[in-house]
Write a structure and sequence with these properties.
Number of strands: 8
Radius of gyration: 19 Å
Strand content: 15-25%
Largest sheet: 8 strands, mixed
Shape: globular
Length: 296
């Protein structure tokens, strides 16, 4: 039994931005709730609350609060909502997400150390920007099949087809704004910024967003001088699965277990969450896996 509530908050420019709050019926919202905020904000895709068994078992049934952000760039209010965050206006989507995160803390639902965020693909770009723009707001980040290097995104796989959404980095006037939300170039490797723990997940055979984005970002974060900072960077690459990151239900369950285990251990280590042990989704010793590795 769950409760779903729609809330609104004001973004940086005053725009009223909605989000959905989902949790177990009767759960006490006391400012200390482990909370997972999900966002996408692109390509006129609308987010609405829906039933997802793995999220229910792995997060909501265990007492976590789930939040779905309806930021600009999506299609929740039609074409104008999408067009409001295109190209040079992309920062509005990130401002919306930051506003929701702050509202969750200010309204007594959670606090930064208990607040995790999740996004994939274009939502992975959102996660990368949250890492570099507002690291102090979050206790954990899950960044899936992400776009992160906006200087070269158009040269990799399907990237050229997204220039209408983001802009063309080969055009100086467009790179001038693109570089402001290209996380790879914005990482502080001096050790002067305290980044939250982050879990990257990608697929070797992603045919839309090249895994090089995630690989390079991990390498960049590992350039930080502190071993403690390096230990906060986790990475999982499935050698199957395409852009969805999993070839079948078993692989999807496995990578979801990795993510929820990471979130619980990072945001609420004192809790005993009943996550079942699972075997790796891919048998690395099989002849097929050996052939796959030889092809790479």
């Amino acid at each position: 039994d769950v409760e779903v509530h729609q809330r609104f908050t004001a973004s940086r420019d005053g725009e009223r931005v909605p989000y959905f709050l989902v949790h177990k019926r009767g759960l006490e919202l006391n400012g200390d709730n482990p909370t997972l905020l999900y966002g996408y904000g692109g390509f006129e895709i609308s987010l609405q609350p829906s039933y997802a068994a793995i999220r229910g078992v792995g997060w909501i049934e265990e007492g976590g609060v789930y939040v779905e952000a309806n930021i600009r760039g999506g299609g929740e209010y039609g074409p104008r909502w999408h067009q409001a965050a295109l190209k040079e206006n992309r920062q509005k989507a990130y401002d919306d997400f930051i506003a929701i995160a702050k509202d969750l803390c200010d309204s007594g639902i959670t606090k930064p150390s208990r607040l995790g965020i999740q996004g994939g693909s274009n939502g992975g770009l959102l996660m990368g920007n949250m890492l570099v723009q507002a690291p102090e707001l979050f206790g954990a980040i899950c960044c899936g099949v992400p776009l992160l290097d906006m200087k070269r995104y158009h040269l990799l796989l399907a990237g050229a087809s997204w220039r209408g959404e983001y802009g063309d980095p080969d055009v100086p006037e467009e790179w001038a704004y693109l570089q402001k939300y290209s996380p790879y170039q914005l990482v502080d490797t001096t050790g002067g910024t305290a980044y939250p723990p982050i879990f990257f997940e990608t697929s070797t055979r992603d045919d839309r967003v090249h895994p090089a984005h995630a690989r390079k970002m991990v390498a960049r974060l590992l350039e930080q001088p502190s071993q403690a900072a390096k230990d906060k960077v986790l990475y999982y690459e499935n050698i199957e699965g395409g852009h969805g990151g999993a070839a079948d239900s078993k692989q999807y369950a496995y990578k979801s277990t990795l993510m929820y285990s990471f979130l619980w251990k990072t945001l609420a280590a004192e809790r005993k969450v009943h996550m079942k042990r699972v075997k790796p989704a891919v048998d690395e010793s099989s002849p097929k896996r050996a052939r796959d590795r030889a092809e790479l």
